[in-house]
Automatic annotation (TrEMBL):
<dbReference type="GO" id="GO:0016651">
    <property type="term" value="F:oxidoreductase activity, acting on NAD(P)H"/>
</dbReference>
<keyword id="KW-0520">NAD</keyword>
<dbReference type="InterPro" id="IPR010218">
    <property type="entry name" value="NADH_DH_suC"/>
</dbReference>
<dbReference type="InterPro" id="IPR037232">
    <property type="entry name" value="NADH_quin_OxRdtase_su_C/D-like"/>
</dbReference>
<dbReference type="Pfam" id="PF00329">
    <property type="entry name" value="Complex1_30kDa"/>
</dbReference>
<comment type="function">
    <text>NDH-1 shuttles electrons from NADH, via FMN and iron-sulfur (Fe-S) centers, to quinones in the respiratory chain.</text>
</comment>
<feature type="compositionally biased region" description="Basic and acidic residues">
    <location>
        <begin position="28"/>
        <end position="57"/>
    </location>
</feature>
<dbReference type="InterPro" id="IPR020396">
    <property type="entry name" value="NADH_UbQ_OxRdtase_CS"/>
</dbReference>
<feature type="region of interest" description="Disordered">
    <location>
        <begin position="1"/>
        <end position="73"/>
    </location>
</feature>
<keyword id="KW-1278">Translocase</keyword>
<dbReference type="GO" id="GO:0008137">
    <property type="term" value="F:NADH dehydrogenase (ubiquinone) activity"/>
</dbReference>
<keyword id="KW-0874">Quinone</keyword>
<dbReference type="InterPro" id="IPR001268">
    <property type="entry name" value="NADH_UbQ_OxRdtase_30kDa_su"/>
</dbReference>
<feature type="domain" description="NADH:ubiquinone oxidoreductase 30kDa subunit">
    <location>
        <begin position="105"/>
        <end position="220"/>
    </location>
</feature>
<protein>
    <recommendedName>
        <fullName>NADH-quinone oxidoreductase</fullName>
        <ecNumber>7.1.1.-</ecNumber>
    </recommendedName>
</protein>
<feature type="compositionally biased region" description="Basic and acidic residues">
    <location>
        <begin position="1"/>
        <end position="12"/>
    </location>
</feature>
<comment type="similarity">
    <text>Belongs to the complex I 30 kDa subunit family.</text>
</comment>
Length: 226
């Protein structure tokens, strides 16, 4: 700037000096500090995520879970049912981890009668004690579950038999295990599953003229207050 120009600037009022030139806003130290801290936090999170992703990718895959010690028991039950009853007798089979690794076999309804005889009479299986029978409404189908024990070996197993909800019917286990009698009557009463072959199948809790089966998912009581 020439000396003449400088003299002109000095002669101008303070508010007029530098008019027409860009003005720099004042710096807010507190705001700048917050912006810097936020940027550093974002960078730290991004770095931590990148590190975690890299470690996860480099980590060795978990070792496969060892098979259940009761897997051989399950496989033997399935083998005998397929060999001595029918190749089609078993619909599914698995070890139920949530129930103490219980060997669980889904037997096809059509083969349940001879399967029940085999499970009790076979010398190796010898499930002579029927601990409990229960029924379940899955809305898509009904299911009867038989929990049995071999008193000699202390082995246990659960056998499931599925049936359609309409005209639900499963061969009675009462002629094989007498203890199934009252359990099947209760299931018949509360879920409406018929048990052909039961010696005395009638309601056990509700009156004979009661309408419907209270444990069915679609049950609607005649009196909403009950």
């Amino acid at each position: 700037m020439s000396e003449e120009k400088k003299e002109e600037e000095k002669a101008l009022p303070d508010g007029a000096r530098g008019a027409g030139e860009a003005q720099t806003p004042p710096v807010d130290p507190e705001r700048e500090a917050k912006l810097k801290a936020a940027a550093e936090a974002r960078a730290a999170r991004a770095a931590a995520k990148e590190k975690a992703d890299k470690e996860a990718a480099e980590a060795a895959p978990p070792e496969p879970k060892p098979p259940s010690p009761k897997q051989p028991e399950l496989e033997r039950i399935v083998e005998l049912l397929k060999r001595d009853v029918s190749e089609e007798a078993v619909e599914d089979a698995y070890v139920n981890e949530l129930n103490g690794d219980m060997p669980t076999v889904v037997v096809r309804n059509a083969h349940w009668r001879p399967a029940a005889e085999l499970l009790k009479r076979h010398e190796e299986l010898s499930f002579r004690y029927l601990r409990n029978v229960s029924g379940v409404d899955y809305e898509t189908h009904m299911e009867v579950v038989y929990h049995m024990v071999s008193l000699g070996t202390k082995r246990e197993a659960a056998i499931k038999v599925k049936t359609e909800r309409e005209g639900a019917s499963v061969y009675s286990a009462t002629p094989v295990w007498a203890t199934a009698g009252w359990n099947e009557r209760e299931i018949f009463d509360l879920l409406g599953i018929d048990f052909p072959g039961h010696p005395d199948l009638r309601r056990i809790m509700m009156p004979d003229d009661w309408v419907g089966h209270p444990l069915r998912k679609d049950y609607e009581p005649l009196d909403s207050e009950v």
